[in-house]
Please model this.
Amino acid sequence: MTRRSGSKALTWMAVSAVAFSAPALADENASLVVNGEIEMVTETDAPAHLEGVLGDKIRSGWTFRARETQALQLDDFDNPGMIFVDQAAEQWDTVEGSEGKSCASCHDDVETAMAGVRATYPKWNDQAEEVRTLVMQINDCRENQMGAEPLKYTDGKMTAMEALISVQSRGMPVDVAIDGPAQSTWEQGKELYYTRFGQLDLSCANCHEDNFDNMIRADHLSQGQVNGFPVYRLKNTKLNNSHARFKGCIRDTRAETFSPGSDEFVALELYVASRGNGLSVEAPSVRN
Amino acid sequence: MQLKKLTVAAALVAGAATAGEIAPGDVVFTEDGAIEISLSGAPGVAANAPEIMDKGAGNCIACHQITALSDIPFHGEVGPSLDGAGSRWTEAELRGLVANAKMTFEGSVMPSFFKVDGFNRPGDAYTGNAAQEPLEPLLTAQQIEDVVAFLLMQKDQ
Model:
């Protein structure tokens, strides 16, 4: 894992100096340039399939966060999520399972092998005839290529590996396919997104579509995008997979949740990812 | 003299409370979503409302700003300000709104606080596990009356 020190994003510093009087608020005009070199698209034209439900523009969750939280994503030295990425980089070279292989045995160098991969996940796998999340694909390689035990869906080692692979696509636009064989899964995810759950009777859309940019208690509601996942949360001081976030959001409607890795959450991840088509892969992003 | 009368009246009303309490399934709404009679059979106690409207069972502040509770931090913006609610709405309308706002505003994102069925995958509070049936309403009949009494006091300045 190469990290750069040195120049921080100057654009952001200049803008934030002006906005200094309101430290608690997100700085919506700030731009995100990581390590002074990776320019992130944090706001862009909404994909056609949204038919204007979010207005003209989609926005990364980063644009809704407080300045101090935003700042942690500017440089890998400040980003607490990068520690886990480094751990996964070691894991990449570690032999596990009955076949005596590591990820590197087949994929060689992670930077080359995994460049662009994150941006297209979840995606249809022809052989398995299913939509696969990155986690499912990693576990498939563990089980069927390495003869190793699959990891629990939200195991810290798994989320770290997901982050390592995602980092190789940083700055590339999310580009998940929603047509062809993935279409029925996408439709299922869309249906879930608009279904109200729990005794509070709220859907994802009620909060992240009808009310993004509004405060709900002390939280500035975002569009609930997943381009930044896995996400390092200051609240639990670890990397979090998107399914863990979905689970928390459904639980907060006083509902019985679905499990990480369930068919429902796989479909939901595909659909939510597609709402962010065009935003940059940002992982590991930092949130409160 | 005056005081004595009041005490007697209060005692009478309190006695009637259990007998007069309406179950969530038996609530009668007007066409406009109002509820004409007290759900608990007793008058509301406005002084109890702030706690209910804060992080308690109601959590109204998560979505609404209200100046009268400005000592509680972080008022939300999902719903309109509740300032002046007592000038905009009658008691019956407020009762209907707090009990089940969807009868007034179709498809509202405001939760229904006095409703126990018709939910999709109801959970056991905030555990993420399945609920134990039968469900309890989010607010009791008396809590609704307390909140209504408080809202009625919020007059336009």
Chain B touches chain A through 28 residues (CB under 8 Å).
